[in-house]
Design brief:
Helix content is 39%, strand content 10%. The protein is of the alpha+beta class.
Length: 82
């Protein structure tokens, strides 16, 4: 008859508990980060003649870096999501 020691079972439980504890901690940190962001207005994308514009939201356009316009590329339905 073979005997299974209880020490063998408890060795496998410790990594499982550590993994669950870290998953719970990371989930809590993610929920706290999203809650602390404090953006109540998600904004909406509006399509104009040749471009798409974000109206509203929590992004301040003045704080974004300016990129020069690329010539020859136009907005189409395949390269943006409303």
């Amino acid at each position: 008859m073979s005997r299974v020691s209880t020490a063998g079972r408890s060795v496998g439980v410790l990594p499982l508990i550590a993994g669950l504890a870290s998953a719970i901690a990371l989930t809590g940190a993610a929920f706290y980060t999203v809650d602390a962001a404090g953006c109540g207005d998600p904004g909406q994308y509006v399509r104009h003649d040749d471009h798409v514009e974000l109206i509203g939201g929590c992004v301040d356009g003045a704080s974004l870096p300016h990129t020069p316009e690329k010539t020859g590329t136009e907005a189409s339905h395949s390269n943006y999501r409303p």
